[in-house]
Amino acid sequence: MNWKGVIPAMTTAFKANYSVDYAFVARHARWMVNEGCSGVVALGSLGESATLRFEEKVQILKTCVKALDGKPVVAGIASLATAEGVELARAAARAGCAGLMVLPPYVYTSDWREMKAHVEAVIRATKLPCMLYNNPVSYKTDFLPTQIQELARENDNLEAVKESSADVRRVTALKALCGDRLALFVGVDDLIVEGIRAGAVGWIAGLVNAFPRESVALFEYAMRGERKMAEELYRWFLPLLMDTVNKFVQLIKLVQQETGMGNERVRGPRLVLTGAERKAALDTLKQALAKRPKI
Fold first, then answer.
1. How many CB atoms lie within 10 A of CB 146?
2. I want to staple 96 with a disulfide (CB 3.0 to 4.6 A). Which of 65, 200, 253, 285 is the partner?
């Protein structure tokens, strides 16, 4: 697993009857990689993993591995129970995944002792390289930089961190504590340029599901220090970057639908956008598409 570049947090496509559209999942994954992405993360928050049955999760992983034919597939491991997380991690290894993205329990708000026990059980369940996902805004549990340093010191296959606290100072702190021991990824779209300046080497991206070419270009401009090019593209992108709001799944899937790469179907308890929310999102997208840069 080469932890760098733009790796989409994939959405999960559903058919009209809300079963998983595996054929589209495969096509979507191939398209994003062909547009320059380094691989994909399946079964993350954006992938609505909490609404998927265990067997659906495994089949999605197998679908992505087959579709990408050697390009890395990272399995998001999120579960209510530690035992289920361990079981899914082992299933991901059997499916041919290149790595794991490990989340804390997504309902129970645990303390550090419990968080550490949970994620270490998943990390140690296989020999796959792992990324820790820190998202205190969504999951109400916060892995502090010193705690992440401790996990890295005690678990050789913890190789990366997806930092989604929306505080770029966390990237700076992790870099100071861990040096190059961990590959640092930005996990919120509207912090990518700032995160790279602080030392991030990768981006687990959301809007990339609809705009992979622009996402890869923005990342590469920022990594190469092409400040003017990065800032111009970033200004175009910013109104569209929707992955830090509560309905980010609905918003990104709506953009996919309107740009011809997917549909907006979501599984309950989510519902598609309606009324003023929908109009505002479509107005923003219309304005952006009218000025879409040529990459």
1. 11
2. 65
